[in-house]
Amino acid sequence: MNRDTRKLYEMKAEVIQAIAHPIRLAIVDFLADGEQCVCDIAAHVGAQRSNASRHLAVMLKAGVVDCRKDGLRVLYSLRTPCIAGFLTCVSNVLREQMRSQNKLLKKI
Asked: How far is CA 50 from the centre of its chain?
């Protein structure tokens, strides 16, 4: 693998790492429906606002989300909504794993 290809994979890994936490996955899923304020995000994921803000900062740095201020409120949105499709793909992988496990269990 050449240096440029390796760098590209490293950049992709950074994006995946930025959402690789249960709270961050829940945030991505919630933002798939549109822009939300940090207070609503925190309530949705069952976290303190400061904790949700830290998770959002990680995703903002990785380019997963965008934010804007509206008066005193900070609103977040997915920078590229297609990332929600990645979560759908992960769900499909889990479904297939379950099917395979169920087939094995039926053989017992």
From this structure: 18
Sequence-separated (6 or more) residues with CB below 8 Å from residue 8:
none
Cα separation of 32 and 21, whole Å?
Answer: 17
Domain at 3-106: CATH code: 1.10.10.10
Residue pLDDT, tens place only, 37-49: 999 999 999 999 9
Question: What are the two backbone dihedrals, phi and then psi, of residue 39, each rounded to the nearest 5 degrees?
Answer: -65, -40
Q: In what order do the strands lie in the sheet with 36-37?
A: 36-37, 73-78, 65-70
Tokens 């693998």 found at: 1
Q: What are phi and psi of 66, to 5 degrees?
A: -120, 160
- Give residue-wise pLDDT tens across range 58-72: 999 999 999 999 999
